[in-house]
Scarecrow-like protein 1
Amino acid sequence: MSFIRQADPSASCAESPYIHKFGPPGSVFPAQRFASGKELLHHGPQPYKAEGYRQSDFNGTAAHVFQNSFYNTDSHVESHFNEATCSPAISNVSQQNSQSLSDNQTSDLEVEFDEDEMRLKLQELEHALLDDGDEIFSDLSGIIDDEWNDNMKNNDWTNTMKNIMSPDSPKESSPESSLCCPDSNNGETRGPKQLLFDCAEAISEYSVDEAQSIIAELRRKVAIQGDPSQRIAAYLVEGLAATIQSSGKGIYRALRCKEAPTLYQLSAMQILFEICPCFRLGFMAANYAILEACKGEEVVHIIDFDINQGSQYITLIQFLRNNSNKPRLLRITGVDDPESVHRAVGGLKVVGQRLEKLAEDCEVPFEFRAVASNIEDVTPGMLDCRPGEALIVNFAFLLHHLPDESVSMVNERDQLLRMVKGLRPKLVTLVEQDANTNTTPFLARFREVYDYYSALFDSLDATLPRESPDRMNVERQCLAREIVNILACEGSDRVERYEVAGKWRARMAMAGFVPSPFNSNVINGIKSLLKSYCDKYRFEKVHDGLHFGWGDKTLVVSSAWQ
């Protein structure tokens, strides 16, 4: 069977105030969890039509219309996953099944079954639970039979992806679905918020049937087109469903967040950074600290281990345009994995070329260097640090992706910090989300996710209308992706491992860094910028770090270190 949906060649995106166009995705991602050797995930960028990326400082042609590959279960496989299950719910089910079989064998109740058939079923279950599924199957035509195709129509993994990605949700908002959270049921109808927490509790207690029943009820009550409480509930439902199905790893890989769809468009992550003031101001605080460190320096070398599309440095270079104290040479070294460095769309070399053109227009002496390496393989010699230059290292929303001591004995997170400390930088800037999703158990992690993303979804209401294609794509491609990973993945598969500001302070101190407080100019500049936004956005200085939040919830923290 095929899940292909043809793109409408006449469709076009509405004009946007941002330097990108983003059309609604039009494909779904089919796969089946417990069909050994039959799960497929064939993915590519989302289909859309764009008018173009108009950045005044860049010379470029109009954006092209890209016709991309769709998710097709009948096509040749480009990627395959059948990860070992790490869900406590699934693990407990197998234990219960084993115990049930043992009990039945010793009970007075005789159960008749075919021994060969039972052995085959047990082998299939063992394969489904233990297979790591990293192989790439080059020919599945003999395996994908009519029975499996019929099952695919109703499998939970496909339904989860449809619920996340469909631009036209079948569920409509209604007064019934407002997110009330009574202290107890007492026979009363439970609101979506209470249902969400009841479902999370059922999963934590391995009550799979109860959790699945609640999920079915929630899907009838919440919608991704509604108010912020509706939207966060809709995506949390799918995160909980993925937890039960052990499908979080595949969904996380399928959703495209950091990759730009075309040469002249922003990735969904960069759109988020543009439309959410907390992220935008977090970057600006880091830039202010970098500018302060540049004063009086002949050569400034910035190393960035996750430069994305370079938006942070567009602002920095523009700041330096009319600065009489700008350095004689600004060097930027960007690190990215070998495949991404050479990608024709949004690759690190393309980012470098854009920054070089901008620096030329701004009359800022500039040099860009791309390092094609995975972060864990980077050595000091690869970074080309030179005597006499002022070295600055920027960690913006990167470190939480690296596994720490709770995941691996290697502890890549602290290892990178110690290596950077050995480079003796003049300044290290750190920008991170302020949430505790790293080592907390599932139920506490769910509550943290609910609190954090509820505030984030609510804040987007103050910047973009609810029907905005940009906003809906950010919510689908970035926020839903993060939610699924935090809730439905464990071990090394869970890469969205945020920590609170206090934990980051401890890590930086253990690596040998000391705080470099933001001066009054930086703080006054941030306060001035914040006045142009909704008054629910807040800013405060705490322990030499700058906290940006919405209402009572801190979302992003910026800090500087020496």
